[in-house]
Design goal:
With about 200 residues, the protein is mostly beta strands. The radius of gyration is 23 Å and the shape is elongated.
Length: about 200
């Protein structure tokens, strides 16, 4: 049973002196809130394709220049987390999220977790950056969270950190795109890192 302090209502000041607490049933919402666990997703990427690449559809088309990659916020394609240049030796993004037990396993939500047609994933957006600093997307990769092994996700929800490690160059030498699932990405559960002060 849940216990909650209850302030007296106006006009009830003369009520029972022992009425400072109230008991009530634990609702489904309350149980879900208590089971929610803060978790982070860290994406560790290597093997980036470079600052220039040709469009996949036409090898004779002009190359994309000053290519960058970033994590896209849910429902806000223009809001990007920490764009990284395509020639970086590596790139890392850390995403705040929440893990909740569900009938199908562990459900992950957060500002950078996409939810489309019942599937959850993280978007890595590829784009060009012009002289004014404007990012223009031309391709995306979907890191599929429902492809994380259930036991790994459950452990990450308990310990606080889910890590995905992958290379970002595809078989043709261009930016990795489309759905990304194991074995093209390796997911592990690790102890939560202390917050950066």
């Amino acid at each position: 049973m849940a216990r909650a302090a209850v302030a007296p209502r106006q006009g009830d000041e003369g009520g029972d002196a022992g009425g400072g607490e109230a008991r009530g049933p634990v609702t489904a919402v309350g149980r879900r809130a208590r089971m929610m666990a803060g978790m982070r997703i860290r994406i560790d990427a290597v093997d980036l394709p470079g600052l220039a690449c040709r469009p996949a559809a036409d090898g004779d088309a002009p190359a994309y220049a000053n290519v960058h990659v970033a994590v896209q916020r849910r429902d806000r394609p223009a809001e990007l987390l920490e764009p990284q240049p395509g020639d970086a030796a590596s790139a890392t993004w850390t995403l705040e999220c929440v893990a909740v037990p569900s009938p199908t396993g562990t459900e992950v939500t957060g500002p950078y977790v996409q939810h489309r047609l019942g599937r959850r994933f993280v978007y890595l957006s590829w784009g060009t950056v012009d002289e004014a600093g404007v990012f223009t997307m031309f391709r995306r990769a979907k890191l599929m969270l429902d492809a994380v092994p259930p036991e790994v996700l459950a452990t990450a929800a308990r310990d606080g950190l889910l890590v995905g490690r992958l290379g970002l160059t595809d078989a043709h030498g261009g930016p990795l795109c489309a759905r990304v699932e194991p074995p093209h990405i390796t997911w592990t559960a690790e102890p939560a890192e202390p917050p950066v002060s």
